[in-house]
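Figure-free illustration: sequence to structure, shown twice.
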Amino acid sequence: EGTTSTSTDGSTSTRATSPRRRMVSREDILTVARDHTVRHGWKRSRVQDIAADAGISRPTLYKEFPSKRELGSALVHWEVSKFIDELSEAVGAAPAGVRANLVAGIRFALEESEQDPFLAAVLTMDRDEESLLPEIVQSGAVLPRIIEVATALLAAQATEPDQKRLEFIAGAAVRLTVSYLVDPSAEPHALTAQRI
């Protein structure tokens, strides 16, 4: 495939052209980064491999995500957004009441940690500063966001919502759940959710 041009003397020539690259979205890059994390762990995932599998050059990837750390942070926030949507659905399907919603949310998180390959990889494959785990447990953005959503979900069920009390309950539940996710026990998720 190429372009044909005609010169002034009437001769024609065909010049090869490079195939057009499709536009790669931010979500496309994050999807590839997620796949690499599931297969290799974040620490062993290489930016140049992620770029190549996304069909872009490394400099193009760096225009969107200036460093591997920023790519990892964006990946965690993207995954957390999806998790929050699914959490909201799970809690919405639970019986009415603050306690029932709290238990449903905790149980969902515990079960999701085993069923979602990305979450399982983040929680089990790498456990150092280069991993994505600190982005979840130490980030000043991720846990407060989940706590905010959990508080709102609980407030929707409270007959007389006391915002400070609900924030405390949601915060404690989220932090205890994360502790169980990082260091899981052998007991059934339903029992753990009740105990938290």
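We now fold a second protein in the same way, so the two outputs can be compared directly.
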Amino acid sequence: ETSLSLPSWGRLPETLPNGARREATDRRRGESNRREPGLPGRLFRILWTVPSDISENTILDSLREREEFLRQILASTEDCIKILGLDARVAFMSENGMRALAIPDFELVRDADWLAFWHGDDRIAAEAAVAAASAGGTGQFEGYFETLAGEPKWFHVVVSPMLGPDGTPERLLAVSRDVTAARRDRTLVEKSASLY
């Protein structure tokens, strides 16, 4: 079973939304210039808008609610959603995405080279999409993929950047939509048209 892996956002901003300086807040906790103790920095960065006097348990409860909300969003779409590193290696794949590709266990593709999923011209198109997203743009292509179960499928793929606090790409979001049926219909229409 795959788990959500939230981005690493780095340090908190110098000034919090309530006007307090980060250093002052840290000193009250006895943690000068360090992240909130007991919380992974990548998670606490998401919650930096929470008042400084809130309890750690409340923060964790809020985080769990947000993760569950995100899980529900991912479960509501049949698209294959993947988070890639800038090197195009797979860091996360949605459950519906694994189902579409007949991948029984995320560990089979964790840290795999996503570009290796594609071949020939599709590989070239995937590389161009990754390059565009890594530069802050958006890349897309339509490519052929054979699932682990041997089922041939066509996907429309969009690759976009996930920006870090400084506005530069930190990770890549790749969303693949199964367009096999539409592709098959288009092929049938083209074959029919060629008969006349």
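Summary for the second example: The two ends are 52 Å apart (CA to CA).
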